[in-house]
Specification:
There is one protein chain. With about 575 residues, the protein is α+β, with helices and mostly antiparallel strands. The chain is built from 17 helices and 20 strands. It folds into 4 domains: about 210 residues, Vaccinia Virus protein VP39 (Rossmann fold), CATH 3.40.50.150; about 110 residues, Beta-Lactamase, CATH 3.30.450; about 90 residues; about 100 residues, Beta-Lactamase, CATH 3.30.450. The strands form 4 sheets. The protein has a 7-stranded mixed β-sheet with strand order 6-2-1-7-8-10-9. A hairpin with a 2-residue loop joins β4 and β5. The protein is elongated and about 130 Å long.
């Protein structure tokens, strides 16, 4: 709030709603991805010596061991568990016998975890023997071996809202529960109890004790934070463990219990009265469609969800007109493809006798089934393709075996060619060094020529400056090409003001009409020199007599003929 300048919670809530990027910044600020390899080493030693051997002894080699690392952050604890299991059963059998599901709510941390790439500082806690065995050096970073990384499956998971991963032999959730309120911890641990196999283990961090959940877990070693589930005697009790554990343990009225059950129902429900005012919305409904406490009591038409993702008002009117419930399937909600949800909607008119009193809107999340249907269709297509490819693959395998021998022979030939290529590269390197020497000589010669040109230009500038006659060179368009210091002194026009300008546009005291006639005569004849004595006014406004000689000049750059004007101020006799 301090960073964005909000004074109250309401101000910051308004800021969140007005700025789409603010939630991501808030989320990154709240999440604390503090983790490391083998954090609290004595606990990991206990896991390796007392828990993993028990899990392996209870499982046959054909039954996979399922591990869930909940709140895995950037993956160090998941890879720590992977190394311990690989040490216990061998790296070759590890990918086949162990599946480690690694989840977190932070997509940025998961992206780091998926790469399995860590710096030297992050690897300090990994024993040297394990580092050499399970990591590959890539520059200044260490990569977990690719063939072993396939046993780790990374994905986003919200411990509060998403269903737990089931049939687990080991659940690792270290120093994650401490960030939840006690009621939220109870809810998560109830899901953990449901997810773990009867012979499975729960591995927590040092900051977590489970003192309130004796009916769900009992300690195997409290100091090392290793627990096993308290088995429920039947299915009904197992399902009861998944209820909203935040409801009061004391007895409540039937109306209260009914209201609480509706609030935590596994579907989204909203009630709208006959006047179209929102009467109630349960927890999932509020989460899915961003319904606030202030929205309860407002007309439905004022809420965005009244028309997005589906037009609710027309469905409500239709349900009351037809006097029956309506079902709308596969309603899509969300913008980005990875966040899209799919719902089935049931619109049920509520009547008291024959009088309409309201409408029940029930949204059922069918995203999982929609995704499964898509996966099933893709799998069927892939299966058909696989059947077709199987026969072809068998034939190709036979051909491949024959080609392998040929490939080995080709590789030997290629090795000889590579040696030959290496010799050619050495020869080419020598030629490049020779060429480089020639280029250096050429650069020296070019530098010498440049110095000579600079000397010639300096010599010409010296001649022009020393010449006591005014010198003006004009091209065939009568534009000034050269203007020496004496001309500047006579007429008061500087070099940069004269060069490039038509001679007739210069404000000088020469009778330019007569001068232009001389220039054109000299340029037309090509070899004759025009000479005249003219009366002029110098830069000080005094009358002077000037002798002008116009001589043709062939310009070397090929842009046409030019004319050289020599101007001499005659002294009065």
């Amino acid at each position: 709030m301090g960073e964005v300048g909000s004074q109250t919670y309401t101000d910051y809530q308004d800021h969140l709603q007005a700025n789409a990027d603010e939630f991501a910044r808030l989320f990154d600020t709240i999440l604390i991805n503090v983790t490391s390899f083998f954090r609290d080493p004595e606990q990991w030693d206990y896991l390796a010596e007392n828990v993993i051997p028990v899990l392996l002894s209870d499982k046959s080699s054909t039954v996979p061991i399922r591990v869930w690392s909940a709140g895995c952050a950037s993956g160090q604890e998941a890879y720590s568990a992977a190394m311990l299991f690989a040490e216990a059963i061998g790296p070759d059998a590890f990918p086949r016998r162990v599946k480690i599901y690694c989840t977190d709510v932070d997509e940025g941390a998961l992206a780091v975890a998926r790469t399995g790439s860590y710096s030297a500082d992050e690897m300090e806690a990994v024993p040297a023997a394990l580092r050499e065995k399970y990591f590959e050096k890539a520059g200044n970073r260490f990569l977990f071996r690719t063939e072993l990384r396939r046993a780790l499956i990374f994905g986003r998971h919200d411990l509060i809202q998403d269903a737990p991963i089931s049939r687990l032999d080991l659940l690792i959730c270290r120093n994650t529960l401490m960030y939840f309120t006690p009621d939220a911890q109870d809810r998560v641990l109830a899901q953990f109890n449901y997810a773990i196999n009867p012979s499975g283990f729960l591995f927590l961090g040092k900051a977590e004790m489970l003192l309130r959940q004796a009916d769900l877990f009992r300690s195997v070693d409290l100091k090392q934070r290793v627990f096993v589930k308290v088995p429920a005697p039947g299915v009904r009790e197992r399902l009861a463990a998944l209820r909203d554990v935040t409801e009061p343990r004391s007895q409540s009225s039937p109306q209260k219990l009914q209201q609480m059950a509706g609030h935590v129902a596994p579907f989204g429900q909203m009630l709208v009265n006959a006047e179209g005012v929102v009467v109630s919305a349960n927890a999932l409904m509020r989460t899915w469609f961003d319904i606030q406490d202030a929205d309860v009591g407002r007309p439905l038409q004022d809420l965005e969800m009244s028309y997005r993702p589906v037009e609710l008002r027309s469905l409500i009117d239709r349900a009351h007109q037809e006097g029956r419930g309506l079902t709308v399937q596969d309603i899509e909600q969300g913008g980005k493809s990875e966040d899209v949800m799919h719902f089935d909607l049931r619109v049920t008119p509520l009547r008291e006798g024959t009088t309409p009193v309201g409408t029940s809107l029930v949204f059922d999340d069918v995203t999982r089934f929609y995704d499964l249907r898509g996966e099933l269709q893709r799998s069927q297509r892939e299966l058909e393709t696989a059947y077709e490819e199987l026969q072809s693959t068998n034939e190709e395998l036979e051909t491949t075996n024959e080609e392998l021998q040929s490939t080995i022979e080709e590789l030997e030939t290629t090795n000889e060619e590579l040696q030959s290529s290496n010799e050619e590269l050495e020869t080419m390197n020598e030629e490049l060094e020779s060429t480089n020497s020639e280029l250096q000589s050429f650069n020296d010669e070019l530098r010498q020529r440049t110095e000579e040109v600079d000397q010639v230009n300096a010599f010409l500038d010296s001649i022009m400056s020393s010449l006591q006659l005014g010198l003006i060179v004009v091209d065939q368009r009568l534009e000034v090409r050269m203007w020496n210091d004496r001309s500047e002194e006579l007429w008061g026009v500087r070099l940069e003001e004269a060069v490039g300008q038509p001679l007739v546009n210069l404000d000088i005291g020469l009778p330019l009409d007569e001068v232009v006639r001389m220039i054109r005569s000299a340029a037309h004849d090509g070899a004759s020199t025009q000479e005249a004595v003219l009366q002029a006014v110098n830069r000080r406004g005094r009358g002077i007599t000037v002798r002008i000689v116009a001589s043709p000049l062939k310009v070397a750059d090929g842009r046409g003929s030019a004319v050289v004007l020599l101007l001499e101020q005659l002294k009065k006799s």
